[in-house]
Amino acid sequence: MLKDFLKKYFGRSLWVYHCNSGGCNGCDIEVVNVLTPYYDVERFGIKLVGSPRHADVMLCQGPAGRATAPALKRAYEAVPEPKLVFAIGSCACGGGLWHDTYNVIGPIEKVIPVHFYIPGCPPRPEAIIYGVALALGAVEKKAVPTEYHPVKFPIVRYHPEDIHVENGWATYDKLEKV
Amino acid sequence: MYLLSKIKETILSLKAGRVTLTYPVDPRPVPERFRGRPVFQPDKCIGCAGCANNCPAREILIADPCQEMRVVMYLGRRCTYCGRCADLCPEKAIVMSREYENASPKITDIRQNLEIWMGTCQRCGRCFKDAGPLDQLMMKGYRFDDLSAELWVYKSKDYLDGEPVVKDIDIELD
Fold it and tell me: Chain A neighbours among B 102-141 (CB < 8 Å)?
């Protein structure tokens, strides 16, 4: 559903606005690196613009700080609809290493809605291109959550309230749940 | 002179050739020592929780739902791929893979849950008593967490007026 939506509204060139709300500039350098001739994203029509009013996509780096969160919210509201938000780096995705300090509110998803996450500290330029290409539907998604459940060991427990007395014999009902 | 410098520049830029990488079409290899997403191997893990104790971003969480089970949760949202967990794992159960294409529309796509079967002392079952108030000051890492009260979650969202868009991320405990 999201893919159809993206194809309908973001089928043409994406203009990106890059917004740092208190990061260390590592992710900014990688975003700028994406625009260099080596990882030339302008061949996909992705262009960096200076004002959020011209942009379709917001690339957010850095956690939502106490002072920068209202500004981040204002910048998000200035982007015309429809808009996409990318959280780039571990600060924007999860609050960063200093997630529990007094001036960090947390990940930017506490302030503005986020559509795509690109974790990494900083993410490689390829990872950023991969994230944008994933949004455009050019590549397959690779990240899947993994879970491991060992062999279940059923422990049978008996409780006094499960005793049935019939004909002088006390019988237990086996409990399935532990 | 001016024209000569321009010609020189043209020759230089023609010499460089085409440098643009064809990344999204062709795969791009990473350097030898690159650290990507950590991969937890559950068959090797003994549940010592050293990774949770020493994670700088506090992204590996430990929950003990019962005495025989320990749940290791790697959420990976703010993981900086520092490799400390892989470094100090005594069984080398954590491997820093070279995967960097972790972008996803859901942040929970990069999480890993392990349920580790823990053997218990069948004699008394209470070999480890609870820490006193003085010992609690010395605690670090996962022993500091109070997962039932979600004390690991920061509670500083009150600075913004209005409701936050996304609430605090809940940990799903079965």
Answer: 102-117
